[in-house]
Design brief:
29% of the residues lie in helices and 23% in strands. By secondary structure, it is of the alpha/beta class. The site of (4S)-2,6-dioxohexahydropyrimidine-4-carboxylic acid (DOR) has 11 residues, from loops.
Length: 441
């Protein structure tokens, strides 16, 4: 089966070019100016941009155990619509993904129902070192230095030290200091409001934990990926970005700040918490200058009923996977960044951070995970039209210019202009950790 995508502006590793892309089976077979007249399907993509599919390396798809919020079918439809062709799911499901059996169960579920490619982090606990040492099919180890949704937490200094000293898989860290959070919460005497979330989980809590994780990574020469930075101050800890540390930012920490609680309430309650408008600016600067390498969503759905509980019973997290690419294409149209940078942050960098085989680029021999985007298309995010099972978005009512219109996973078209091919299945992502990660080149 051959598909020829003609006349698109293709975002290649070296920049944008008007070339034809031939897909054969599940891989990219040719990229050139030649007209491959013998393709089975010809797509005229004049006026559109062809990008590698987005790789979202931080999602919470809730299966198993929390499927009233989200499940792999809804979440992977949301991915396909949003141009996300691969995801890495976090271990705070029920049961937690902290051992081989739980990971195997998740992989089997995804193979049966995910429309896009998948990988699953193993979660660290204070006493599952052996499991962490043997999880070779995982992208890495997720460590919660501060508690969040679910029960995973490693805040004991010795347990943390052993994880950095005695494991080899790259570590993805949630950096908020548990002791600081507890101290802030217990010293708060007045009635609680959702805006207090940012006072309890404050900038200090983020800085202390990011400092602890980066110190441990440098001490043990261990690969570390700092998830969802929320403050500009943390960038100082990452400024020396040679070596084995990478960092990530999420759309909500770039587009929302503490002033948005008044309008959106607990819909923008998440961990790490929102910080100030100055932090938004600082994080954008860090991204544009390269101190931050990756953009991912931390897609963490909860139902609107759960979100409506009074703080602090309202849960932390928000859905984003189907709108993340559009949010950044809109920024391209506004002149804030270039489409090549978006591809670097959302496709190429996550593939390299986690040593993915055949992902993240439009290059001959790479997997045909592709998304066609229309930079001229305007559309409004509306709760009722969300594919995520929780059916809401913090960006409800927001009009963006620049949207994905067609998505292919392993050479098969899974999404086209609002319609899905539900027979498409993603594959398990392979990780070759001998490659050495992002900085290995
Ligand atoms: O806000 C968040 N929600 N942050 C996390 O780290 C976890 C997530 C969830 O799973 O709900």
């Amino acid at each position: 089966m051959k598909t020829l995508i003609r006349n698109a502006t293709v975002v290649l590793p070296g920049g944008c070019e008007r070339v034809h892309v031939l897909v054969e089976g599940s891989t990219i077979a040719a990229i050139d100016a030649a007209d491959h007249a013998r393709a089975d399907t010809i797509v005229d993509a004049s006026g559109l941009h062809l990008l590698p599919g987005v790789i979202d390396d931080q999602v919470h798809f809730r299966e198993p155990g929390l499927t009233h919020k989200e499940d792999l079918r809804h979440a992977s439809r949301a991915c396909a619509k949003g141009g996300v062709t691969s995801f890495l799911d976090m271990p705070n499901t029920k049961p937690t993904a902290t051992n081989r059996a739980a990971l195997e169960d998740k992989r089997n579920r995804a193979a049966a129902s995910s429309l896009v490619n998948f990988g699953f982090f193993i979660g660290a606990t204070p006493d599952n070192l052996e499991e962490l040492q043997e999880a070779e099919r995982a992208p890495g180890i997720k460590v919660f230095l501060g508690s969040s949704t679910g029960e995973l937490l490693v805040d004991d200094a010795q347990a943390l030290e052993r994880i950095f000293a005695e494991t080899t898989l790259p570590i993805a860290a949630h950096c908020e200091d548990e002791a600081t959070i507890r101290e802030n919460a217990s010293s708060w005497t007045g009635p609680l409001d959702v805006a207090d979330h940012s006072r309890i989980r404050d900038a200090r809590a983020a800085w202390i934990a990011t400092r602890r994780a980066t110190d441990l990574a440098r001490k043990h020469g261990h690969r570390l990926h700092v998830l969802h930075l929320s403050t500009a101050a943390e960038l100082d800890l990452l400024a020396d970005h040679r070596g084995r540390i990478t960092a990530e930012v999420c759309p909500h920490h770039l587009f929302f700040h503490t002033g948005d609680y008044a309008r959106l309430g607990s819909l923008v309650q998440m961990n790490p918490s929102l910080k100030t408008a100055e932090d938004n600016e600082g994080l954008w600067k860090g991204l544009l200058e390269g101190t931050i390498q990756v953009v991912a969503t931390d897609h963490a759905p909860h139902t609107l009923e759960e979100k409506a509980r009074p703080y602090p019973q309202s849960p932390s997290g928000l859905p984003a996977v189907e709108n993340s690419l559009a949010l950044f294409l809109d920024q391209v149209n506004r002149g804030r960044c270039a489409i090549e940078q978006v591809v670097r942050w959302m496709c190429d960098a996550p593939a390299r951070v986690w040593d993915m085989v055949g992902k993240g680029r439009i290059e001959v021999g790479y997997d045909a995970d592709l998304v066609l985007v229309d930079l001229a298309r305007s559309d409004t995010i509306v709760n009722d039209r969300q594919e995520t099972k929780c059916r809401w978005s913090p960006w409800h009512g927001t009009t963006l210019r620049g949207w994905p219109v067609r998505t292919w996973v392993l050479g098969r078209e899974v999404f086209r202009d609002g319609r899905f091919d539900e027979s498409v299945r993603g594959g398990e992502i392979r990780f070759d950790h001998a490659r050495g990660g992002y900085w290995a080149g």
